[in-house]
Fold this sequence. Notes:
The complex is a heterodimer. By secondary structure, chain A is an all-alpha fold. Chain A has helices at 23-34, 44-47, 63-91, 93-117, 120-140, 143-149, 154-183, 191-212, 242-245, 249-279, 286-314, 316-340, 343-372, 377-384, 386-408, 418-436. Helix content of chain A is 69%, strand content 0%.
Amino acid sequence: xxxxxxxxxxxxxxxxxxxxxxxxxxxxxxxxxxxxxxxxxxxxxxxxxxxxxxxxxxxxxxxxxxxxxxxxxxxxxxxxxxxxxxxxxxxxxxxxxxxxxxxxxxxxxxxxxxxxxxxxxxxxxxxxxxxxxxxxxxxxxxxxxxxxxxxxxxxxxxxxxxxxxxxxxxxxxxxxxxxxxxxxxxxxxxxxxxxxxxxxxxxxxxxxxxxxxxxxxxxxxxxxxxxxxxxxxxxxxxxxxxxxxxxxxxxxxxxxxxxxxxxxxxxxxxxxxxxxxxxxxxxxxxxxxxxxxxxxxxxxxxxxxxxxxxxxxxxxxxxxxxxxxxxxxxxxxxxxxxxxxxxxxxxxxxxxxxxxxxxxxxxxxxxxxxxxxxxxxxxxxxxxxxxxxxxxxxxxxxxxxxxxxxxxxxxxxxxxxxxxxxxxxxxxxxxxxxxxxxxxxxxxxxxxxxxxxxxxxxxxxxxxx
Amino acid sequence: xxxxxxxxxxxxxxxxxxxxxxxxxxxxxxxxxxx
Lengths: 465, 35
């Protein structure tokens, strides 16, 4: 990286007096931008009318073709986070954020060319593949840095960043709609120009984050914080090498914990609007359902910060116990809310469920830190995100197919989701058991301690102790 | 340190203002549920 020395890990060691509270905004600069992915659907309808403008014309793209763009981006988020986690960890957060900015903005620019040439493959490669790599690298880039700066509150610190990923769509959705309204004309949809402007904005925003971010000096600790000298039952002082973590049962138990928690949440998140209208026909209108989706998004974002912060006091394992036990009760209560016609109970149930869905994402980096140490936590987190990709497929499929099966077998639409809710509750029981089996990682997986420059060179040993 | 305080205000304002705008927009949309 001699061509770009400002990206070097050694150049970003914080000077004396540097405030650690500058790190969360640096992380938010990245996460608020890549969180746009959740709002990509605002482009779907305009992109089905690029030729016809007012309505779809022959040759215009179909929604099914456009749906692949988001799916590809989420797939490559998982792939890049898993494959490049170690590279991100060892190169430092600035290099990772810079690379993420290039990929993310580059994805928008390539997609703009795709829209201009009306070539959907350029959008698949641009937003889907290149943007997906930007998502994956950007998502994990600040995780271990935040944990190093906030050893006393790792949950709260990573919760703030991951909250930004949930909040990014809040900014992107109205911004995209406003930009398209400015660039559109009676003969032009304005999507390509919107992509270019958003690519420029996001690149600049993410570069501010890359410029601000610093890593702490070796041995630094916050004022008044005394690091525990001994590992406790569920919080280690040791480190586990990234690929050795894969050999531990703890990694796979937490993988299932995340996958099942996300599966339960993601399935209803995508169907919330339809579900609320079908369970309460005539009482929840299309407009009210849109409001319900907005309310759930707020709880999704708020839960990311709230639950991760709570985990600093309650412990990670206990926090997931709350997610699963409360989740089981709430999922089982939803059919009852439908039976008694209580919209309020229905809304409360799903708002709490979605807050715990968000909390599952934001609490897991600190859970991994507790199990595997700080050294490779970002890379291990990257590997764990494959659970998200898996849940992204299973969750919506479960909800859609069970509903479809019920409706085709004569179940009234208002009751068609009942079985789904019970299936989700069963998934959470399995998650509860996986969480219960999590114990401290065996000492033979711990890395051999290195005396100097622990941040740059660490010698992994396996089976040595 | 005064320099740090300015940096903190700028950094948090840089991310906080757009986020607050997005949250308000979404909250206004969510209010439709209660109408």
